[in-house]
Write a structure and sequence with these properties.
The protein is of the alpha+beta class. Helix content is 36%, strand content 32%.
Amino acid sequence: MIYQHRIVIARSGKLEKRHVEFQAQTMNALDEAGSVLTGAWEVYIGNEAGSAVWQLRQFDSMAAWEMHQDRIRADNQLSEARKQNLYPHLDEVNTSILRLADISPALPAEWPGFDDVRGTERGYIEQRIMRFRVGAAPDHHALYRDKLMPALAREGAELIGLFDTLIGDGTTNGKSMQSVELRRFPDLASWQRWREAQDDDPALSKLVKQEWMPHLMELHSVLMRPLDYSRIR
C-alpha cells in the first residue's frame, strides 16, 4: 500500500464551508474512484489550528494512484463542480506520498463506509513529522523500534502508524529523510498525561531528550480531532 498525505488549508473562517462542500461535491466521488479516505483530521492544537485538515488516502500501489489521477482529470463534471463550489474555500493544498515503515503497525486493507463510522466514538490524533539527516533514518528507526515505541505505549496512547515519505519534502534518490507518526489518544486528559510523563518520568525523559531527539533535525507536531466521517478516529 501507499498513502497520499495531504494538508488542506482554509483560513479566515472558510474551513466549515469547506467541510460542507467537500462532503457534497467530492468525498464519495473520490472514494468510489479508488481513493480511499482513511483519515481526515482537523488541526486542534498546532500550526494552522482551526484552519487546516490533514487527510490520509490509501492506494494499492503507485500505479493505482496514477490511474486514479487520470480518472479524476477525465471527469469533467466533477472537476467543474469542485472548481465552482469547493476550490473558492481553499487557500493552500500540499501533498506527499508515504508508505508504512517496516517497523510500523499494519493498517487495514478494507475500511467501513462513511455512514458506518458517523456518530461513533472519536479520540484525538497526534501527528508528528520528523526530519532526519540524509541516510540517518535507519538508525532512527532502530532506536524507535527497540526503545521508543514500547516506552510511549502508555496512558492509553495507540500508535496508528509510522510512515516514510516516498515523494515530497524530505526525499532523495530513493531515501526518505522524513517520517510521519500518527498516534491516537482516547481523550485530551490522556494526551496531557502522556506528554507530561516525558518531562516528569526521569527514565522516559532521558530516553526522549538524550537518546531520541539527537536523531532529529526537525520535529513538527499537531494535535487533531477526527472529522465525523474519518475512518481512523
